[in-house]
Amino acid sequence: TQQFVEEAILCFETRQYRAAVVLAWVGAVSVLQNYIHTNALAAFNAEALRRDVKWKPAKTVDDLGRMKEHDFLDVLESISVLGKNVKQELHKCLQLRNGCGHPNSLQIADHKVSAHIEDLILNVFAKYS
Which three-class secondary structure string do you get for the chain? Predict the structure, then answer.
């Protein structure tokens, strides 16, 4: 996680904004997955299985990565790890990450990227690290 964040900061400082968005997001997801693995794995698996009967219960942090990130955030809200408004903001961060992580004509600048990173710091890194 620390390495993702350090790379995100380096990318931001060198104006590689799309990469900064992607790496900051990956770091935040890593924090959330580690938190779930350590603190709420049973509740997570129960809710995931309730939503999808084909879900194979996660045992490791890597197993949590089998779930789409959008769905992962929804499960976290359902088990009260995330509040509704935080989940909505994180969905926006995920949408920006998806826009930055795939070939397209999206243009972003420093203020958008710094706001993205700030949202992740306040709502994920500061709370779940």
Answer: CHHHHHHHHHHHHCCCHHHHHHHHHHHHHHHHHHHHHHHCHHHHHHHHHHHCCCCCCCCCHHHHCCCCHHHHHHHHHHCCCCCHHHHHHHHHHHHHHHHHCCCCCCCCCHHHHHHHHHHHHHHHHHHHC
> Of 5, 6, 2, 12, nearest to 108 (Cα)?
12
* pTM, to two decimals: 0.94
Rounded Cα distance between 116 and 100, Å, is 12
Per-residue pLDDT 10s for the chain (129 aa) are: 778 888 999 999 999 999 999 999 999 999 999 999 999 999 999 999 999 999 999 999 999 999 999 999 999 999 999 999 999 999 999 999 999 999 999 999 999 999 999 999 999 999 998
Intra-chain end-to-end CA distance of the chain, in Å = 9
**What is the token pair recorded at 37?**
């693995």
